[in-house]
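Per reviewer request, we include the raw input and output of the structure prediction for the construct analysed in the revised manuscript.
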Amino acid sequence: MFVVVGAVVGSEQFLAWGWRLPFLFSIVLVAVGLFIRLRVEESPVFRALESRQARARMPMLDVLRERPRQLLTATASFVANTAIGYVFLAYLLSYGTSVLGVDRTTMLVVVIAGSVSLLVSILISARWSDRAGRRPAPTSTARCCSSCGRCRSSCWSTPRRRRS
């Protein structure tokens, strides 16, 4: 959107007020996201827990105690992606145009390419953290999941044994 708006309104207008337009247009994305979120049904496991009003007393402590490695993996992947995102989206554009003297449109294309690589990085990190999250805590044992009725199912609430 920044490249399109910059090309339509011109460089001076873009710097004066045009940079605000892509943010205004993002209202459409917010509305679409809200529409989708309000229409997505909760998982059967969540609905069962909600109907029983089953809540952990201190869920964060449970996660820290039962799955510290998985928490660390997910946290590290999030921090790495966020750092890369800020470098590409905020600093690089400013540095390239003001210090290096590169044209703003060229720098926007570079930032877009960086954003695509960030997306790929996020997808890979999500895949890795999902795999790490499937590994059980060392003390867990296999048991049947009440929501799907299968032992060692893919249900998130089911502890599983380590593969041998």
